[in-house]
Amino acid sequence: MYNTVDLYMNMLATLPDETKFDIAKKLLNSIKQKAVSFVGKKTEEKDAFAALSNAWDDNDMSAIEVAEDLRAHRVFTRNVEEW
């Protein structure tokens, strides 16, 4: 079973290298823009990922509590028909 990244990589494999570089630049720029909005000020390139990693810092719940909360609130909308 493929994950999402593998599916995209298979689709992009046939593109020319120049196009792949252009896509990579645009992806990095989109991450940098999100980092700026989280911090509220312009960040250095090396701090872009650090700014995104603090997105959940205001949450006092442990990882186990977050997982339990997600399980408690999930909703299954897919109906699988029996054969």
Description:
By secondary structure, this protein is an all-alpha fold. It has helices spanning 4-12, 17-39, 48-53, 63-73. The two termini are 23 Å apart. The model has no long low-confidence stretch (mean pLDDT 76).
What's the short version?
By secondary structure, this protein is mainly alpha-helical.
Query: What is Rg?
Result: 19 Å
How many helices? The count is 4
Order of helices and strands: HHHH
Distance between the termini: 23 Å
Total number of β-strand segments?
Answer: 0
- Calculate the mean pLDDT score and round it: 76
* Poorly predicted sequence stretches spanning 5 or more consecutive residues: none
